[in-house]
Amino acid sequence: MTQRTNYFQQSPELSKKLLEFSALFQNTTIEQPIRELVEIRASQLNGCAFCVDMHIKMAKIHGERELRLHHVAIWRESTLFSPRERAALAWTEVLTNIPAHGVPDEIYDRVRTQYSEKELSDLTFLVGGINTWNRLNVAFRMVPGSSDKAFGLDKANLE
After folding, report:
1. How many CB atoms lie within 10 A of CB 1?
2. How many of the other CB atoms lie within 10 Å of CB of 121?
3. Which InterPro entries does the UniProt entry name for this protein (predicted)?
């Protein structure tokens, strides 16, 4: 397998700004458990092993139930998610895989029943942010678990 570029080393200023942007989500209207579900789902859809690994560990550290983590991939069939969480997951999916004709009104209207305009704006920025990370980590084949100590993810006790 070809050794890929370390984008943190090659573009340190851009990487730092993206980290700063991501840190802003701690202070948005979107609650932490939903942020983590969104980050996991987008990462699953994008095939980003590094981010799936990272966000499952983060969710576990923050007290997320293990069964819910397994059910993120099957959220439509699962009974473990609230209407607000389901709306966030639907929004994540439609923005991660944008249909040829854009976001359907039906999905927008359904999400708006659960989120205020400010919350929907914050949620949309969150989805955009995780999709950016996914694209970087997939492009440069970041190894799952390779930054666990740096991000404190070794505390998840998942091996």
Report:
1. 4
2. 13
3. AhpD-like, AhpD_core, CMD-like
Provide the residue ranges of all domains of the chain, joining segments of one domain with +: 13-145
Q: Please tell me whether the overall predicted TM-score, pTM, comes out greater than 0.85 for this model.
A: yes
CA–CA separation, 131 and 126 (whole Å): 9
CB 66 within 8 A of CB 155: no
Question: For residue 68, which amino acid is it?
Answer: R
pLDDT per residue as tens digits for the range 62-108:
999 999 999 999 999 999 999 999 999 999 999 999 999 999 999 99
Alpha-carbon gap, residue 78 to 120, rounded angstroms = 23
Taking the C-alpha atoms of residue 23 and residue 146, their distance in angstroms, rounded to an integer, is 20
